[in-house]
């Protein structure tokens, strides 16, 4: 295993980067000595451990204890890559298991600073089975509603990535870090190195943010504030409407029913950055909602046209207005992302944490639904209320989406919302296109804006199915009763916002 390079921070420096002057109190598990040369009697193993200890000043490849990051107490564990490549042996497992149990006993979040080459071959299967111990300890912490954050350093590979790293609720990576299950010496010789990098894992939806070292303390502090633990948080307030007041009524569906949704904004995917975006102050008055109230649409065709108006505020505007700080969750953890769906956690101006899932006006892809379900389930486990913003013409219906399991992904999202014990608040801000939109709508707590609609099917498709001429598309929109006021009358929506 390679030695620690001169540019790699030690385990203690990694902790000090987060805790600063607040300091760190180290803990140690009860002594449990190994037999001579370890469980396999590997010749020279004791001598290798002694050299590693002399070089690093550490007794093992992991140290752990309690500390304060920003203003939040937590349990920290940190890998020392200079000690046999940060590898996991039985005594490493003792420390990792003890760190998780310490977090459980004190009801504190756990922050893991990972830098490891994987399991320690000199201890054979005894080393490998430490992964099972870590997984079991992580499950106990998860069941207790306590969050886990991983910061993956260079390198994070093998079983350490597959448990402590990728198994965390939120995964942050340092720029330039090697991150992947296969280490550099065991992957195919022609493998693309980008796939094993922090940026590559972010692109594949396996990492939530790539965070520069000088932004790490702020990012972790925000995440700790958002994830808790919390008790009895109120429901997410309904966002205020951001309709463009005084704008001319947009062109309605033409007689031929050719008005398009092509102008819908796509939104922006989660940025690498610090993983912490700032909003306009959450609730600060803005020009977008100043002036007189926008009248309700008189017809179904007008409601559809308004929702498809490219000038209408999209999810990014609503989220920026709603949150003081946003913390994106990125990707579906299955190798894909959907830039048309934004999800994560945020802090409002009063400090209240809220998880969010927001469609950006595009057809939502399977990865988007999987990311949504991931976010909702995490929020539910941590007791954080959820806000969903609905705005899609419908689920993606191309062949690639079918191969990627769009039906199963939508079903899983329906299940995540249905099973949520925390309150879910929904605001329909644009198009509510059939089941692809309904999957994110909260039963009995959905609200709509004046420039939105919700329909069992798009008017154009309904007319085609009914074998009506294109000239009847507008009349079909009226028949579907999809206007905001219709949705309230039908009992689907609780209120019209704005």
TrEMBL record:
Residues 264-282 have a biased composition (Gly residues). Keywords: ATP-binding, Cytoplasm, Fatty acid biosynthesis, Fatty acid metabolism, Ligase, Lipid biosynthesis, Lipid metabolism, Metal-binding, Nucleotide-binding, Transferase, Zinc, Zinc-finger. Its main location: cytoplasm. The keyword Metal-binding applies. Residues 22-42, 254-310 are annotated as: Disordered. One of its GO terms (molecular function) is acetyl-CoA carboxylase activity. InterPro entries: AcCoA_carboxyl_beta (IPR034733), Acetyl_CoA_COase_a_su (IPR001095), Acetyl_CoA_COase_Trfase_b_su (IPR000438), ClpP/crotonase-like_dom_sf (IPR029045), COA_CT_C (IPR011763), COA_CT_N (IPR011762). Acetyl-CoA carboxylase is a heterotetramer composed of biotin carboxyl carrier protein (AccB), biotin carboxylase (AccC) and two subunits of ACCase subunit beta/alpha. Component of the acetyl coenzyme A carboxylase (ACC) complex. Biotin carboxylase (BC) catalyzes the carboxylation of biotin on its carrier protein (BCCP) and then the CO(2) group is transferred by the transcarboxylase to acetyl-CoA to form malonyl-CoA. This is Acetyl-coenzyme A carboxylase carboxyl transferase subunits beta/alpha. It comes from Streptomyces globisporus.
């Amino acid at each position: 295993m390679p030695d620690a390079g001169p540019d790699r921070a030690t385990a203690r420096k990694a902790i000090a980067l987060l805790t600063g002057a607040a300091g760190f109190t180290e803990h140690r598990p009860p002594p449990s000595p190994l037999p001579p040369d370890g469980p396999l009697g590997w010749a020279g193993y004791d001598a290798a451990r002694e050299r590693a200890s002399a070089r690093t000043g550490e007794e093992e490849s992991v140290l752990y204890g309690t500390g304060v990051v920003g203003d939040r107490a937590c349990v920290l564990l940190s890998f020392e890559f200079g000690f046999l490549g940060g590898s996991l042996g039985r005594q490493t497992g003792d420390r990792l298991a003890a760190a998780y149990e310490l977090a459980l006993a004190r009801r504190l979040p756990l922050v893991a600073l990972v830098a490891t080459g994987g399991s320690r071959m000199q201890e054979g299967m005894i080393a490998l089975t430490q992964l099972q111990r870590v997984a079991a300890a992580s499950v106990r912490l998860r069941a207790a509603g306590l969050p886990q954050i991983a910061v993956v350093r260079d390198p994070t590979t093998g079983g350490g990535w597959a448990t402590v790293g990728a198994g965390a609720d939120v995964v942050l990576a340092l720029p330039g870090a090697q991150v992947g299950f296969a280490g550099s010496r065991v992957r195919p010789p022609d493998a693309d190195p980008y796939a094993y990098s922090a940026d590559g894992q972010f692109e594949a939806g396996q990492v939530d943010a790539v965070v520069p070292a000088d932004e790490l303390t702020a990012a972790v502090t925000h995440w700790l504030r958002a994830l808790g633990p919390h008790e009895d948080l109120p429901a997410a307030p309904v966002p205020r409407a951001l309709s463009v007041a005084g704008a001319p009524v947009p062109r309605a569906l033409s007689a031929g029913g050719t008005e398009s949704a092509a102008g819908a904004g796509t939104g922006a995917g989660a940025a690498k950055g610090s993983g912490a975006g700032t909003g306009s102050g959450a609730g600060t008055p803005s020009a977008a909602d100043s002036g007189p109230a926008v009248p309700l649409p008189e017809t179904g065709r007008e409601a559809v046209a308004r929702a498809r108006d490219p000038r209408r505020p999209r999810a990014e505007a609503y989220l920026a207005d709603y949150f003081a700080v946003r913390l994106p969750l990125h990707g579906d953890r299955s190798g894909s992302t959907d830039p048309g769906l934004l999800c994560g956690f945020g802090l409002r101006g009063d400090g209240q944490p809220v998880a969010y899932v927001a469609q950006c006006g595009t057809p939502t892809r399977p990865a988007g639904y999987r990311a949504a379900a991931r976010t909702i389930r995490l929020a539910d486990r941590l007791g954080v209320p959820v806000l969903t913003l609905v705005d899609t013409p419908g689920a993606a219906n191309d062949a690639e989406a079918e191969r990627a399991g769009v039906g199963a992904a939508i079903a899983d999202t329906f299940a995540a919302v249905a099973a949520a014990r925390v309150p879910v608040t929904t605001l329909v801000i644009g198009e509510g296109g059939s089941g692809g939109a309904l999957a994110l709508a909260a039963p009995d707590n959905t609200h709509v804006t004046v420039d939105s609609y919700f329909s069992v099917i798009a008017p154009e498709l309904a007319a085609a199915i009914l074998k009506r001429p294109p000239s009847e598309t507008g009349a079909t929109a009226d028949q579907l009763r999809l206007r905001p006021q219709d949705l309230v009358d039908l009992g689907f929506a609780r209120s019209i916002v704005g």
